[in-house]
Design goal:
- With about 150 residues, the protein is of the alpha/beta class.
- The chain is built from four helices and six strands, in the order ββαβαβαββα.
- The protein has one domain: Response regulator (Rossmann fold, 3-Layer(aba) Sandwich), CATH 3.40.50.2300.
- The chain has helices at about 20-35, 45-55, 70-80, 125-140, and strands at about 1-5, 15, 35-40, 60, 90, 115-120.
- Mean pLDDT is about 85; it is low at about 5-10.
Length: about 150
């Protein structure tokens, strides 16, 4: 199932990929309420094609999904010329930061570059919006309104 909300060609596009329909709907609604155009994908094996057709400014990607993991999908995106430079923010229900302050992802070991962002679930909308804005400006892609 794919969810798509399109309006306003000048808005930044955010692809939301998560196997939980409620999370996709929640994030897409929050992003749309804040000026972004969104596409939600709940089937990981369809996310690569959706990303190519949607042309996102950034991608929110769940780490653990059935069938095609977020990590495998991320690796595929980084190897695809059309998607290699699109900023990715991982979302995970497994905290990336341990109590001792160390981070659990081992990008070199997994043979992928670190993503542009990593947020723990449940995602705070204010943190999500700030992260997206920071990444889009850093990447020279503008904010929600250009």
């Amino acid at each position: 199932m794919m969810l798509l909300s399109q309006s306003g060609a000048s808005r930044q596009r955010i692809l939301v990929v998560d196997d939980e329909p409620d999370i996709v709907e929640y994030l897409c609604t929050a992003l749309e309420d804040n000026g972004y155009e969104t596409m939600g994908v709940i089937e990981a094996d369809k996310a690569l094609a959706a990303a190519k057709s949607f042309g996102p400014s950034a991608i929110l990607l769940d780490v653990l999904m059935p069938g095609h993991s977020g990590l495998a999908l991320y690796r595929d995106m980084r190897l695809d010329a059309a998607l290699a430079d699109v900023p990715v923010i991982f979302l995970s229900g497994y905290p990336a930061t341990k109590q001792d302050g160390s981070r659990t992802p081992r990008w070199e070991e997994w043979k992928v570059p670190p993503p542009e962002g990593f947020l723990d679930k449940p995602v705070s909308i204010s943190t999500l919006l700030a992260t997206i804005k920071k990444i889009l400006y850093r990447e020279g892609r503008g904010g929600a309104n250009g």
